[in-house]
C-alpha cells in the first residue's frame, strides 16, 4: 500500500489568549487524491490548511502526529519550513485581488516561485512561468506575463495563482475556496485544471469549500467539520447518504433549482456535537 502524503493525528490549534481551541482533535490522512473539507464559516477549515503550512503566527499548534512525507512539521524550524512552503506544499488562496502584489507584474510574481526554489537564471524562470501560464489555459501568456493584477479578470487572476502555486511541482496543494469568486464557466475550467494535475502529476489536493455540490462532484473523500472537530468522514459520492445530523442539516439548507418554495431548513444544533468524534 502506498504511503500517505500527509498524516494528521489529534491536531489541536489555539489562538493566543483564546479560551477555547479553534481546532480540536482533527485526524486524517491524505494520499494522491482529492480530499474535501467542508463546514460552516468558523468551523476550522482554513485554520487546518494554514496550520499545515505553519502560517498561523501567535497560535499554538499541537498534534500526536503531523507528518508530511518524511518530515515532521511540528519540529521543523522556520528556515526549514521556507524550503517546504511553495516547493513541496503550496496553498491557493481564495481571492487573487488580495493575494497578488498590486505593484508587481503578474509574470514576475509567478517566476519568483521558481527563482526562490531552484538554481536558475531569470530567463529560465521566465520561460518556466510562461509555460505554466499556458498550462493553466491562459491565452497569450506573453501578454499576461507583463500585465499588473488590476489589468486581468478574476478568473484569470485565479489561474495565475494556480500557476504560481504549481510551478515548483509540489506534492501537496491546499486550495482554499479557489473558485468562490468565479462564474460557473470559469469555475469549471479551474476545476478541470486542478483535476488534471491530480491525475497527471499524482499530487495530493485538499479542497476547502462551503460548496457541497462542488465537493460532491469533484472530490474523492470529504471531511465534515463543526466547531473545530471532524464530525463525519465519507466518500464524496456518498454525501447524500450522510448519517450525521449536522451533515444532513447542511444538505437540507441548500436551495435547489426546481425545489419547493417552503423556507429552507435551519440547523437544530445539539450540544453533543461539540464533543463527539467522527
Automatic annotation (TrEMBL):
Domain ABC transporter, residue spans: 6-252
Main location: membrane
Membrane topology listed for this record: Peripheral membrane protein
A GO MF label: ATP binding
Family annotation (Gene3D superfamilies): P-loop containing nucleotide triphosphate hydrolases (3.40.50.300)
Keywords: ATP-binding, Cell membrane, Membrane, Nucleotide-binding, Transport
One Gene Ontology cellular component: plasma membrane
Membrane-crossing residue ranges in chain numbering: none
InterPro entries the UniProt entry points to: AAA+_ATPase, ABC_Ni/Peptide_Import, ABC_transporter-like_ATP-bd, P-loop_NTPase
Locations listed in the record: Cell inner membrane
Family annotation (PANTHER family): DIPEPTIDE TRANSPORT ATP-BINDING PROTEIN DPPD (PTHR43297:SF2), OLIGOPEPTIDE TRANSPORT ATP-BINDING PROTEIN APPD (PTHR43297)
Family: Belongs to the ABC transporter superfamily.
Name by which UniProt lists this protein: Peptide ABC transporter ATP-binding protein
Species in which this protein is naturally found: Ensifer adhaerens (Sinorhizobium morelense)
Amino acid at each position: 500500500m502506498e504511503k500517505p502524503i500527509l498524516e494528521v493525528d489529534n491536531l489541536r490549534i489555539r489562538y493566543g489568549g483564546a479560551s477555547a481551541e479553534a481546532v480540536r482533535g482533527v485526524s486524517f490522512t491524505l494520499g494522491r487524491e482529492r480530499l474535501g473539507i467542508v463546514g460552516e464559516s468558523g468551523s476550522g477549515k482554513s485554520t487546518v490548511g494554514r496550520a499545515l503550512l505553519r502560517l498561523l503566527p501567535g497560535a499554538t499548534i499541537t498534534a500526536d502526529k503531523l507528518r508530511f512525507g518524511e518530515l515532521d512539521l511540528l519540529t521543523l524550524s522556520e528556515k526549514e519550513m521556507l524550503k517546504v512552503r511553495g516547493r513541496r506544499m503550496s496553498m491557493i488562496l481564495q481571492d487573487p485581488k488580495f493575494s497578488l502584489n498590486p505593484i508587481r507584474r503578474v509574470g514576475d510574481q509567478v517566476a519568483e516561485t521558481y527563482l526562490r526554489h531552484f538554481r536558475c537564471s531569470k530567463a529560465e524562470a521566465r520561460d518556466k512561468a510562461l509555460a505554466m501560464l499556458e498550462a493553466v489555459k491562459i491565452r497569450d501568456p506573453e501578454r499576461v506575463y507583463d500585465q499588473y493584477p488590476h489589468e486581468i479578470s478574476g478568473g484569470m487572476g485565479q489561474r495565475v495563482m494556480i500557476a504560481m502555486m504549481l510551478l515548483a511541482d509540489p506534492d501537496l496543494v491546499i486550495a482554499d475556496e479557489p473558485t468562490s469568486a468565479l462564474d460557473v464557466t470559469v469555475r469549471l475550467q479551474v476545476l478541470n485544471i486542478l483535476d488534471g494535475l491530480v491525475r497527471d502529476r499524482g499530487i495530493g489536493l485538499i479542497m476547502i469549500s462551503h460548496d457541497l455540490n462542488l465537493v460532491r462532484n469533484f472530490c474523492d473523500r470529504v471531511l465534515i467539520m463543526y466547531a473545530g472537530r471532524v464530525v463525519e468522514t465519507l466518500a464524496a459520492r456518498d454525501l447524500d447518504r450522510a448519517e450525521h445530523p449536522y451533515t444532513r442539516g447542511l444538505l437540507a439548507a441548500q436551495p435547489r433549482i426546481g425545489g419547493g418554495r417552503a423556507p429552507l431548513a435551519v440547523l437544530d444544533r445539539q450540544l453533543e456535537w461539540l464533543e463527539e468524534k467522527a
